[in-house]
Fold this protein.
Amino acid sequence: MLSSVTPHGDLQETLGEARTLRTLNSFAVDLIAIPSVDDLFWYVAQNVVGRLKFVDCVIYQANESHTELVQVAALGEKNPFGRSIINPLKIPFGQGITGQVAQSREAIVIDDLLMDRNYISDTQFARSEICVPLFCGNRVVGVIDSEHPMPAAFGASELEVLITIAAMTSAKLELLAEADRSKQRYLDLVETHAQLSLETTNRKALETELFNARKLEAVGRLTGRFAHEFNNLLTAISGNLEFLEEAMTDQLSVDTLNSAQTAAQRGEKLIQAMLAFSQRSRLSPQIADLNTLVALACEQSNGRQNDAVQLNLAENPNLISVDPKFLDAVLLNLIRNARDAMPDGGEIQITTENIIHNFSNQQGLATALLPGHYVRLSINDSGVGIPLEGLQQIFDPFYTTKPVGAGIGLGLSMTLGFMQQSGGTVAVQSQVGQGSTFQLYFPTVSQGANDLLTINR
Ligand SMILES: Nc1ncnc2c1ncn2[C@@H]1O[C@H](COP(=O)(O)OP(=O)(O)OP(=O)(O)O)[C@@H](O)[C@H]1O
Ligand SMILES: [Mg+2]
């Protein structure tokens, strides 16, 4: 223990009882601020050697399985390297003085190591030793050990001091273990919370999707029924107007009749769009090459001077089965929408490509699409883009952001209904200020039909 010591020397004699108490007090206060187990062990070793004047101090920590002690801090002549241990000593529980203390859980004072059969000598000559266990909960988690070159260097007071130090260290070890457990509980909670938030977000997204699908289905059913009934009424009105036309002779009556017929025709167009949305159109599909239909629609749309339509058409597009007249109306609406989104002009890119669609790629699809071979048509503009709220409504019938008279909001709802009735769907991607891309997915007709029509093309 002490640097100059008489056998069974008394610490209180050298340090004075009051000073020892003060040292232990300040040791206890300092412990509060120590942040980690590693810091704690080094701090204890420093105090045992420094303020309490022991010749050396070695601290061992038990391994996870409590079978072996590993040297974790050492100060004094045995460790001239300061706060690092090169090649830490490992001692099995039960072996040597330290291993014996770890196993018996009892502090020990050896007056003469030469007489002790448990003593394992090392490079530094020692005659006496003191060793006390460290506890956490009910388990031995380490030992504090000190040796001295003189026999009988440790007495009752040294034992008392070292047991007090070990008790304080053990209490701090418990606190640090509890702090670790709390931190782990907190981290677990944070992770659980993150998982819950993700699940809630996913569930909300699924609920919104389901709600939108149900809404479209319900509106579709209602619109279809209404359009069907109204179509019958319009057919009767138009028929009667035609019948009247033959009986009219004076100009005023003819003009009035013409106005009524124009209104009836508009009504019919509207009804056609509504029937298309509710997937009740009478379609006349034909096997066709999408490139040809696209080129035709572009010719018709014959754009304004201040925009450019760029065509990137697939070299060998697979054939599709589609109603060409209807597709024409759909394409014209998409091109008109793209132009309306670029009031100051810009570029419209129209692309066709053969693709294989799979379940992992559902992004932006308005409705689910079965995996398979499709010909995809994309219309991309560099216009104003569509905000998120808009994206959730653009396929609703009568949703429009255009001024009165410029649009009634049936173009896209008609497009979606038509594409579904044709076995495909629509996808949209858009960013405000960057532009939008609308994509139409047409199922490829079977390879047999493809071969046949390639010969006749
Ligand atoms: N390319 C686009 N860029 C920005 N917004 C678009 C684009 N295409 C559609 N929209 C938005 O979607 C709305 C609905 O389009 P939709 O074609 O269904 O109807 P509309 O063009 O307003 O009227 P209609 O087509 O019946 O004449 C538009 O009013 C517009 O707000
Ligand atoms: Mg439109």
Confidence is low (pLDDT under 50) at residues 1-8, 451-457. The chain has three domains: 10-175, 200-277, 286-456. The first strand starts at residue 56 and ends at 62. The first helix runs from residue 11 to 15.
